[in-house]
Structures are given as structure tokens and as C-alpha cells.
Design brief:
Helix content is 61%, strand content 0%. The protein has helices at residues 9-27, 45-54, 62-92, 96-108.
């Protein structure tokens, strides 16, 4: 919301209010149902990746920035841990030679190892 409002916290707050009012109008009580807030609520892996790469646009209000930062961390921490675990599982399942080569490259030339390509 803040990004769509060009960093204007007041405009973003108004957009959020309109969003929730419209959501409640369309969905009634289901708009606030706990299951509608689950991670699979339409937020894709690509969305989380974009948030991870771009972060958020800081505002002039440090309290808003702290809240945004906390929200980003809360959203991304489980996702990043899952990605790390997925990559580690992929590495463990590699043939011994490939695994040794990857681990050696990771140690000697970490800038060259693109672990994002291991598991997609």
C-alpha cells in the first residue's frame, strides 16, 4: 500500500481502510476469517522473492518504517528458512562428486556459486 501511494503514509492508510471496507462488503465476516490470512492466501513465491530483493520504500516516519521492517521480517523469515532447507536437501541428494565440488566451490569462491539455481 505504501509503495502504491508513493511513500505517502496518509494516502497508504486511506487505501488500507478502503481495501478492508471493500473486502468486508464483498466477503462479510469471511473477510476476517483466520484462514484468509494463511500463507497460501494468494501470495506467491515470486511475491516473496520480490519483497526479499526490493524490500520496502522507507518513509519519513521512523515508526512506520519500524512497523514495515517488522512486517517484512515476519513475512520473509519463514520463507527464507524454507528456501535454505530446500537447498540443503537438494545438496544432500546430489551425487557425492557433485556435492563435494559444490561445497568446495562454496568455500573457495562463494561469489561464483549461485545456489538459487540449485532448487527452483
Amino acid at each position: 500500500f505504501l509503495e502504491a501511494a508513493g511513500g505517502d503514509a496518509t494516502r497508504a492508510a486511506r487505501r488500507i481502510v478502503r481495501y478492508w471496507e471493500e473486502r468486508e462488503r464483498l466477503l462479510g465476516d469471511d473477510a476476517f476469517a483466520p484462514e484468509s490470512f494463511q500463507p497460501d492466501d494468494g501470495v506467491t513465491d515470486e511475491d516473496r522473492g520480490r519483497l526479499y530483493r526490493k524490500g520496502f520504500r522507507p518513509t519519513s516516519d521512523s515508526r512506520v518504517n519500524e512497523a514495515l521492517r517488522a512486517s517484512v521480517v515476519q513475512t520473509l523469515a519463514p520463507w527464507l528458512l524454507g528456501k535454505i532447507e530446500q537447498v540443503e536437501r537438494e545438496i544432500e541428494s546430489m551425487p557425492r562428486r557433485k556435492k563435494e565440488a559444490l561445497l568446495e566451490a562454496r568455500e573457495k569462491r562463494p561469489a561464483v556459486v549461485d545456489e538459487h539455481q540449485i532448487s527452483s
